[in-house]
Amino acid sequence: MACIVLGITGSIAAYKAAGVASRLVHLGHEVHCVCTPTALQFVTPLTLATLSRNPVTTTFQDETQGWVPVHIELAQKADALAILPATANTMACMARGLAPNALTSLYLAYRGPVLIFPAMNGAMWEHPATQENARILAARPRHRIIGPAEGELACGATGTGRLVDEEEILRAICAELA
């Protein structure tokens, strides 16, 4: 089966990545989780490692196991990169080529399909800067933005900004690999 890197960022929706990782493993895929530092405020490396059955990369200090940095090794090995949830900050870094963490560094080294699943407050999603970054990313070869969905947001507001549901995430990833 395929090697999938799940890029997990600092959003309350990060907890949903654990379920996606588990389901992808049960479908027979090799799953590697790469977290931004703020993602760890919402989900633990132990949870992700247990469900993905692989070590979790969270910082450049995690890259001391071999002579090839993990973010480069995973970028070369992965069949798909799925960023979920994708925060406004991570999308901005990706759009502008910034690499302040292991996930955005991996993104710059990766040449395969990138699936971006945004999740953020509706006002953040609708901000012209975020919309411009989304347009930049969507225009890149082999990049797809799926979502965000409309509904009640974690902040209590209603609007567009929710992470799409787990089934839609799995469908998008599996369709990309087909």
Secondary-structure map:
Layout: E1 3-8, H1 15-26, E2 30-35, H2 45-52, H3 70-77, E3 80-86, H4 88-96, H5 102-109, E4 114-118, H6 122-126, H7 128-139, E5 143-145, E6 149-152, E7 158-162, H8 166-177
Parallel strand pairs: 1-2, 1-3, 3-4, 4-5
Antiparallel strand pairs: 6-7
Keyphrases for this structure?
178 residues, five-stranded parallel β-sheet, two-stranded antiparallel sheet, single chain, alpha/beta, 7 strands
Question: Based on CA inertia axes, which overall geometry fits?
Answer: globular
The secondary structure category is: alpha/beta
Largest sheet: 5 strands, parallel
N- and C-termini, Cα separation: 11 Å
| SSE pattern, N- to C-terminal | EHEHHEHHEHHEEEH
Helical segment count: 8
- Write down the oligomeric state: single chain
Strand content: 15-25%
Poorly predicted ranges (pLDDT <50, ≥5 residues)?
none
Spatial order of strands in the largest sheet? 2-1-3-4-5
